[in-house]
Amino acid sequence: MSCLDHIVRCNAHDMSDYTPFIVDGRTVGHIRSRHLVHLERFADVFKLDADSVGLAAGLDSYDVRTDAVGPVLKLLADDGVITGWRGEAYPIGGRWSGPYAFEIERAAAAFLGCRAYGVHINGFVRDGDDVKLWIATRADDRPVCPGQLDNMIAGGQPVGLTLKQNVIKEAGEEAGVPAELANTAIPVGVITYTMENDLGLKPDMMFCWDLELPADFQPMNTDGEVAEFRLLPAAEVLDIVETTDDFKFNCNLVIIDFCIRHGVLPPEHPDYESIIKGLRS
After folding, report:
1. What is the DSSP string of 2-65?
2. Residue 15: which of 36, 4, 30 has the closest Cα?
3. Contact 260, 251 (CB under 8 A)
4. 18 pLDDT above the threshold of 90
5. How many CA atoms lie within 13 A of 25 on its CB side?
6. What is the pLDDT of residues 86-130, one digit of tens each?
7. Distance (Å, rounded) from C-alpha 278 to C-alpha 281?
8. Which has the closest alpha carbon to 169: 193, 147, 153, 190?
9. Of 76, 98, 171, 176, which one has the greatest count of Cβ atoms within 10 A?
10. In the predicted model, is pLDDT for residue 218 greater than 90?
11. What is the pTM of this model?
């Protein structure tokens, strides 16, 4: 493996296998063509044409669309078509910060091929001229990438919270970070990628944050999603990324971005230009 291998992996997809999902004249997602059969029995909600999917006539507002699409997605989950139901609402069908077309259950984002948002927080400690990163190990019962390494804090971006509010919430739940300390996290940019999974397409946007922590801070998980935390030199973390598949797939990209910004991965790296471009595909 290499840094570039992880970026390529997170951007592996074949758009010829997908049908555009169009609302208000804009493409809000892409649905795997063989999954369209699951929508045929819901003609009062979804309109299937030869080369696109839309919403039925009369579904013309945020609330009306949300109320119509939600039960369909729940039925598909009950049938096992959509898996990993989270009970979290995601906004779709607009640029970041809206306005959006409607909202859906988080687990259905890939089925509809809609952009999903999340926050990833690099918890780090300065040690003289060096930087160390707190690395989480995901619990063995996590539905995605159980037992793999993870950023110290990460989570999806739900409806109803600002990014900073979500950072504070996730920091408290996942690592026991007090709100006043979590509030010092600094936004440092975004990473985008588009990959496929069993359910469909994942055109994701991760908002990255850096959270500098006191040397004596010890993270403590409170929601059962993390098995343990380890404090490692950033150079060692980058070596894990470059030589293994130990990290959850998209966390590799967050680590790479952190190491670029903190000088751990220098411009002399042979893949530097391709890595920079690939983090925002």
Report:
1. -HHHHHHHHT---GGGEEEEEETTEEEEEEEGGGGGGGTT-TTTEEE-SS-EEE-TT--SHHHH
2. 30
3. no
4. yes
5. 0
6. 899 999 998 888 899 999 999 999 999 999 999 999 999 999 999
7. 5
8. 153
9. 171
10. yes
11. 0.94
